[in-house]
């Protein structure tokens, strides 16, 4: 489970969070210049009036010379939540010659026991408002709508099945999406990736995040090795990968006796040769080895690298000074080792020089991981693979749309 250091634990504990770096650093921010326009309030002309109520004065309280001058109108915004049951009368015809009965179909979206607005409300409460299933039942019952916990669960599971193809389309389109960063460069050609822990049927799994500024896709898998990352990037299950490798390289690709490195090499070969999905040129991640060789350019996050320097806490005064202003060799062993590791990753840290559209950090994927952690706080774990798919699919749609 991800834990955040708030500074309230052990004495002297330091918070190495990069929260401050996530704030807007664009020119003019914070100095009163070029601030983004605030979303204005909705004017009365934009409101639809659903009901008009007359407020009368008690005439006995008015002076004798009071004259009627009309009414002063004010629109008060409110919300109305109530049960709404629809009975459909379906025309039925019978053909004696065919011995067959014909019945009018239900309108699109009204199949099943629950209507589209009720299903939409349940899904929105769960994945957008981050309400637990128990909380959804209480909310509906408080508004006179009786719905069991099992019915709520079934609505959520079915919604995940319904949107599976849409999430696949988001992934494919996201890889080739075009937009513009604050610097004006096109965002086409890169994605960020990260992962966070998840609980599935009582076991620890991993929720992988694939995103850029235009889309976010969540994918929860049992592992987080290179083979799993390949599956996630291709939007496929491990079983599909095994079948494809067997078809491409022969049955020994899925054999238990085959070495892991050989299987990885075959998976990488297929990954780069396949043409079913257009992959991005650049992948921005932390320095985990599982992300290596998955893109033409593997960019590393500068904030992740800098965090290691922040964790250094030398006691000697001269070491503290060297930490503030250091070269490639300082005599402070821990700092020299850290500098050497940074230099070893120079090419990956400087991908931005070849591809100016690539960000210097993977903050988007880290923020998306926070969203997964928040949902984990609300719903501790998924009880089935369908539940995992429903959570991933709906979370991807909400994160992409907002």
Plain-language structure description:
This protein is of the alpha/beta class. It is built from 14 helices and 7 strands. It has helices spanning 116-128, 133-142, 149-162, 164-175, 226-234, 238-249, 260-273, 302-310, 317-324, 333-344, 346-349, 351-354, 363-378, 385-401; strands at 92-95, 100-103, 190-200, 203-212, 215-221, 282-285, 297-300. The strands form 2 sheets. Strands 5-4-3-6-7 form a 5-stranded mixed β-sheet. It has a two-stranded antiparallel ribbon with strand order 1-2. α1 (116-128) crosses α3 and α5 (226-234) runs parallel beside α7. The two termini are 26 Å apart.
List keywords for this structure.
single chain; 402 residues; alpha/beta; five-stranded mixed sheet; two-stranded antiparallel ribbon
User: Tally the helices: what do you get?
Assistant: 14
Helix content bin: 25-40%
First-to-last CA distance: 26 Å
Major β-sheet, in short?
Answer: 5 strands, mixed
Note the beta-strand portion: 5-15%
How is the largest sheet built, in terms of strand order? 5-4-3-6-7
What is Rg? 29 Å
């Amino acid at each position: 489970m991800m834990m955040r250091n708030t500074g309230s634990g052990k004495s002297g504990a330091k918070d190495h969070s990069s929260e401050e770096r996530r704030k807007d650093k664009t020119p003019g921010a914070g100095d009163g210049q070029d601030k983004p326009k605030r979303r204005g309030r909705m004017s009365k002309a934009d409101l639809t009036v659903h009901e008009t109520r007359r407020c009368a004065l008690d005439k006995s309280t008015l002076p004798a010379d009071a004259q009627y001058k009309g009414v002063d109108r004010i629109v008060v915004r409110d919300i109305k939540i109530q049960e709404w049951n629809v009975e459909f009368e379906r025309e039925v015809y019978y053909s004696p010659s065919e011995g067959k009965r014909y019945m009018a179909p239900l309108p699109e979206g009204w199949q099943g026991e629950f209507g589209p607005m009720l299903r939409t409300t349940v899904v929105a409460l769960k994945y957008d408002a981050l309400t637990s299933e128990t909380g959804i039942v209480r909310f509906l019952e408080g508004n006179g709508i009786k719905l069991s916990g099992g019915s709520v669960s079934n609505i959520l599971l079915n919604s995940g099945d319904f949107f599976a193809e849409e999430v696949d389309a988001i992934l494919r389109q996201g890889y080739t999406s075009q937009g513009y960063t604050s610097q004006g460069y096109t965002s086409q050609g890169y994605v960020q990736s990260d992962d966070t822990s998840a609980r599935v049927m009582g076991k620890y799994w991993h929720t992988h995040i694939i995103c850029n500024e235009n889309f976010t896709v969540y994918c929860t898998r049992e592992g987080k090795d290179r083979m799993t990352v390949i599956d996630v990037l291709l939007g496929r299950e491990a079983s599909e990968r095994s079948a494809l490798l067997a078809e491409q390289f022969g049955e020994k690709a899925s054999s238990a006796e085959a070495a892991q490195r050989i299987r990885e090499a075959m998976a990488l070969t297929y990954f780069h040769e396949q043409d079913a999905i257009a992959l991005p040129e650049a992948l921005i991640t932390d320095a985990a080895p599982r992300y290596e060789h998955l893109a033409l350019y593997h960019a590393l996050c500068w904030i992740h690298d800098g965090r290691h320097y922040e964790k250094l806490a030398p006691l000697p005064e001269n070491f503290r000074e060297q930490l503030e202003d250091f070269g490639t060799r300082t005599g402070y062993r821990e700092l020299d080792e850290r500098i050497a590791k940074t230099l070893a990753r120079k090419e990956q840290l400087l991908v931005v020089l070849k591809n100016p559209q690539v960000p210097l950090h993977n903050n988007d994927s880290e923020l998306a991981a926070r969203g997964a952690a928040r949902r984990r706080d609300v719903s501790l774990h998924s009880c089935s693979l369908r539940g995992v798919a429903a959570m991933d699919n709906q979370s991807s749609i909400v994160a992409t749309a907002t």
